[in-house]
C-alpha cells in the first residue's frame, strides 16, 4: 500500500514555479486578468488525486460532502486561518463566534427560509417539554424547527443589534470562521470544491453610507495582498450591477452604491469589467474570479453591498442630520445638525478566500506538494546517519521547537507567541541515501543530516529543497556556513531557528 502511494506521488507531483496590472479609468471591454505570477502552474492531476497522495484529506459515505482532514491537511487549513487572522488587525476586523443552528423564525426574518430553504438542512429539536415534537405539534418558540446556517450574516446582524449604535461606532467589522452547511445535491459533490460542510473567511462590515467607498477600497487591497502572497492567478474583478427586475431598494440608492464601487475599482489600479444586471436582488457586488491552470474559473473572493438585510432586521444607528446621513451626504446646516435620528447602516459582505476548502483545493493543485515553508505540513526532518546519532537528532528536533525537557516537567505552559514547527526524525536504520530520497519524495522543506562529526561540532548539514528558499539562503548565509558536502549548509540550532523564522515571516 505504501509503495503504491509513493508511486502515485511520484507520478502526479512535479515542480511548479508578477506582472503589474495597469490602472484603468474605465472597465475594459474584454475579459482580462490580473496576473500575480508570471508562470501559472500546470497541474498534472487534480486536487483529489493529490490530496490522497499527500495524505491531506479523505471523504466518507457516512457524511457525503464533508471532508475529513488528516493531520497534514488540518495543518494547512489552520495555517490559512492563522494567516488571515494575522491580517485582521491591519484591516480592522474582530473575530466573533456565532451559533451553527438557528430557529426557523430567524431564517424567515432574513428571507432565507423563503428563498433558500431547499438548500438548507432542517433540524428538529426536543422543544420546551423535552419530548420530540412532530411538525403539527410544533409551536413558534421553543418547539419550532431549526436550520443549520448556510451563511453567517443573520448571526452578525444579531450581534450588531445587541447594542445601541452611534455613527461614531461605525464601521464595525466582524469576521467569522464558523462551519456552514448547504444541502448540495449528491451528484454535484466533488472533493473540496463542491461540498456540503465548509468554512468561509466570512466578514461583514456595518458602515455608514458615506463609508462604503473607503471600505471597498480596503477590501480590494486585502484581496490583492492575499493573492500576491500565494502567487495565485490570473484573476479578474467583475462588478455586477442592478437587475432590471426584482430588486430591493430605490434606484437612486443602487446608482449611488454602484458609483462608489466603480470609484473604488478605478482606484485599485486593477483591470475590471461590468456584468450588467447580474447583481444580487439586495445590492451590487464585486466578484473575484480566479482561473486555474486548466482554464476553469472559480469564484473565490466576493464583496457585496446589502441594503435589504439591515432593513429586515431593523438595524439602526443614531446620527445628526439623519436625512443627509442616509444619502451619504454632509451638511453645515445647524438646524439639520441639531436633529439627531436613526439611520439604517449598509452591510458589506466580504470573503477574501471564499470557501477555505475550495481555496485549499486550488493551492493543492498549485503547489503539488512543494509547499512554502510557512504553510508546509512537513517542514523539517532530521536524518541520523546511524542509530548512534538518534539521540542527538531527537535533541535537535526538540530544541528547534524550544522544547527543553526539564521545563515541561515543571508544568510550565508553552508561551502563546512561541512558534511551533513540524519537525520529524527518521529513526529508520536504512542508508542515508534512502532516507534522503524518501524525505524528498515526501516534500520536506529542510533535510538535516547528522553524523558523528555533527554530534561533535553541535551542528547539522542542512539541505534546502525548495528553490525560492534556497535562493534566500544564499543571500543571508556567509561562505563559512557552506558545507563541503555539496550545495548545503553547516548550521547550528540557533542559526537554523533564525532561518526558519525568516522563512515564516516572509511567507517563503
What topology emerges from the helices and strands here?
Blueprint: H1 2-12, H2 47-53, E1 57-58, E2 68-69, H3 71-91, E3 94-95, E4 101-103, H4 104-110, H5 112-115, E5 122-123, E6 146-148, H6 153-161, E7 172-176, E8 179-181, E9 197-207, H7 212-230, E10 235-240, H8 251-268, E11 272-275, E12 285-291, E13 297-306, H9 308-312, E14 317-320, H10 322-325, H11 334-338, E15 340-343, E16 346-355, H12 356-367, E17 380-384, H13 390-400, H14 405-409, E18 423-425, H15 432-441, E19 446-450, H16 452-457, E20 460-464, H17 467-476, E21 489-491, H18 493-505
Helix pairs in contact: 1-2, 2-12, 7-8
Number of helices: 18
Report mean pLDDT, rounded to a whole number.
86
Which geometry do the CA atoms define? elongated
Question: Compute the gyration radius: what is it?
Answer: 27 Å
- Tell me the distance between the termini: 33 Å
In the predicted model, the low-confidence regions spanning at least 5 consecutive residues are 1-32
Largest sheet: 9 strands, mixed
Strand content: 15-25%
Helix content: 25-40%
**Structural class label:** alpha+beta
How many β-strand runs? 21
Word description of this protein:
The strands form five sheets. Strands 3, 7, 8, 9, 10, 11, 12, 13 and 16 form a nine-stranded mixed β-sheet that branches. Mean pLDDT is 86; it is low at 1-32. The protein has 18 helices and 21 strands. The two termini are 33 Å apart. Helix 1 crosses helix 2 (47-53), helix 2 crosses helix 12 and helix 7 (212-230) crosses helix 8 (251-268). Helix content is 35%, strand content 19%. Strand 10, helix 8 (251-268) and strand 11 form a beta-alpha-beta unit. The protein is α+β, with helices and mostly antiparallel strands. The longest helix is centred in the first third of the chain and has 21 residues, at 71-91.
Amino acid at each position: 500500500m505504501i509503495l503504491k502511494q509513493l508511486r502515485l506521488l511520484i507520478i502526479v507531483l512535479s515542480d511548479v514555479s508578477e506582472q503589474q496590472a495597469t490602472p484603468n479609468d474605465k472597465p475594459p471591454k474584454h475579459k482580462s486578468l490580473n496576473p500575480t505570477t508570471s508562470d501559472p502552474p500546470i497541474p498534472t492531476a487534480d486536487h483529489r488525486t493529490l490530496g490522497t497522495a499527500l495524505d491531506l484529506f479523505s471523504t466518507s459515505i457516512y457524511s457525503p460532502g464533508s471532508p475529513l482532514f488528516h493531520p497534514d491537511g488540518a495543518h494547512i487549513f489552520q495555517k490559512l486561518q492563522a494567516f488571515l487572522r494575522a491580517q485582521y488587525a491591519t484591516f480592522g476586523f474582530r473575530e466573533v463566534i456565532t451559533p451553527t443552528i438557528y430557529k426557523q423564525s430567524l431564517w424567515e426574518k432574513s428571507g432565507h427560509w423563503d428563498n433558500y430553504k431547499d438548500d438548507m438542512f432542517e433540524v428538529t429539536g426536543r422543544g420546551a417539554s423535552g419530548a420530540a415534537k412532530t411538525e403539527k405539534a410544533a409551536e413558534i418558540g421553543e418547539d419550532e424547527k431549526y436550520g443549520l446556517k448556510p451563511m453567517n450574516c443573520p448571526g452578525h446582524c444579531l450581534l450588531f443589534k445587541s447594542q445601541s449604535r452611534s455613527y461614531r461606532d461605525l464601521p464595525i467589522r466582524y469576521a467569522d470562521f464558523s462551519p456552514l452547511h448547504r444541502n448540495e445535491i449528491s451528484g454535484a459533490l466533488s472533493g473540496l470544491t463542491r461540498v456540503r460542510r465548509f468554512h468561509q473567511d466570512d466578514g461583514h462590515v456595518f458602515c455608514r453610507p458615506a463609508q462604503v467607498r473607503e471600505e471597498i477600497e480596503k477590501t480590494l487591497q486585502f484581496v490583492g495582498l492575499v493573492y500576491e502572497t500565494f502567487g495565485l492567478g490570473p484573476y479578474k474583478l467583475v462588478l455586477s450591477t442592478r437587475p432590471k427586475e426584482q430588486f430591493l431598494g430605490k434606484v437612486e440608492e443602487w446608482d449611488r452604491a454602484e458609483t462608489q464601487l466603480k470609484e473604488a475599482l478605478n482606484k485599485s489600479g486593477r483591470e475590471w469589467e461590468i456584468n450588467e444586471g447580474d447583481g444580487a436582488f439586495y445590492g451590487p457586488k464585486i466578484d473575484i474570479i480566479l482561473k486555474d491552470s486548466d482554464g476553469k474559473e472559480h469564484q473565490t473572493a466576493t464583496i457585496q453591498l446589502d441594503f435589504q438585510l439591515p432593513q429586515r432586521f431593523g438595524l439602526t444607528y443614531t446620527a445628526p442630520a439623519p436625512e443627509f446621513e442616509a444619502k451619504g451626504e454632509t451638511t453645515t446646516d445647524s438646524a439639520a445638525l441639531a436633529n439627531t435620528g436613526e439611520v439604517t447602516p449598509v452591510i458589506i459582505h466580504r470573503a477574501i478566500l471564499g470557501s477555505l476548502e475550495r481555496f485549499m483545493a486550488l493551492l493543492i493543485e498549485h503547489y503539488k506538494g512543494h509547499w512554502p515553508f510557512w504553510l508546509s505540513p512537513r517542514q523539517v526532518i532530521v536524518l541520523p546517519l546511524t542509530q548512534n546519532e538518534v539521540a542527538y537528532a531527537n535533541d535537535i528536533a526538540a530544541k528547534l521547537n524550544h522544547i527543553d525537557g526539564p521545563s515541561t516537567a515543571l508544568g510550565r505552559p508553552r508561551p502563546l507567541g512561541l512558534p511551533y514547527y513540524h519537525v520529524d526524525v527518521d529513526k529508520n536504520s536504512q542508508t542515508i541515501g534512502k532516507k534522503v530520497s524518501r524525505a524528498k519524495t515526501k516534500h520536506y522543506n529542510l533535510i538535516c543530516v547528522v553524523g558523528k562529526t555533527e554530534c561533535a561540532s553541535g551542528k547539522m548539514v542542512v539541505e534546502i529543497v525548495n528553490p525560492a528558499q534556497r535562493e534566500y539562503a544564499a543571500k543571508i548565509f556567509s561562505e563559512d556556513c557552506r558545507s563541503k558536502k555539496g550545495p548545503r549548509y553547516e548550521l547550528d540550532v540557533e542559526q537554523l531557528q533564525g532561518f526558519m523564522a525568516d522563512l515564516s515571516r516572509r511567507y517563503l
